[in-house]
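Q: How would the structure tokens look for this protein?
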Amino acid sequence: MTGVNSCEKSPAVTRAVTCYNAYDTVAILEDCGECVNMQGMTMEGGYVYAFKISRDSSTQLLHKVNVATGEVTRLRDLDSGSEFVDYMHHANDACAFRVNGRLHLIVATIDEGERAMVEIEIEGDGYRRIASYTLRDENGTDIIISAVEILKREEDRLTLLLNEKNDCWRAVLDLNNRPQVLPVSRAFTLDVSRVPYHGDLLPLPTEIFYHQGIAIRGDRLYAPRTHRSESVFAVFDISGGEDVLKPLVEETVIVSDVKYTKLEAEGLAFDEEGRLFFNTNRRNNTAETHYDGIHVVNRLRF
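A: Here is the predicted structure in token form.
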């Protein structure tokens, strides 16, 4: 692990207007073959699971990262035997859960139709696809999602929160009867027009990256937005049932690093202690892609 533990140095983490500390890099995920862009991640049992994909989203590669040691393992598809697959498109976000002791990931693909959401089962250092889902709303329209999280679990029923840009839906998945078409219903809209940004407001979506993963801890929803060299984690209270959620100004987190011209937090997840982990596409020019990493916010618990 490497890191800087002073607010006065880069990289920096800002919570609202107060700088608490820096982030540590747990591991660097090197480019491999065509897979050069970091995308979705999730966390379970002391491991981060993170995807890198090709520039055209045709190829995906899944990594398992031990957050205690930084060891990186590239997982392989158990049916094909290859580390590279072609059925998870942009692999933009994921959530983790267990079925009969086995780890499963649900992946939000930003794809249309029957591959809008893909479920895989992890077995050791490999995995296999067990289901693909079409997501269909009350009007019979198929939707595309860029993020997925678990709102709650009741025995073998998962209530999922699905997200695309600022729109959110709910879906209930019966793990004993996985349907090919999964109905979804509107949940709420995220109002990002009031997200604080260095004494001002975060620019509107035309100026930022917003196809990023989400995370839930307690009654808080964390949604990253990237503007230039910084990532802003907007925080929303999801306990009240409102149709439009406004950001919690005092809980906003900003991650920056002066060494990079781009620091895009692609996804985020919490461990059991409340530590915030995130993965990044980091660049200091358009030609260099090997700074992508898994990171943790230091001395800040959620």
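The chain has a mean pLDDT of 88.

The chain has no helices and 29 strands.

Upvote if useful.
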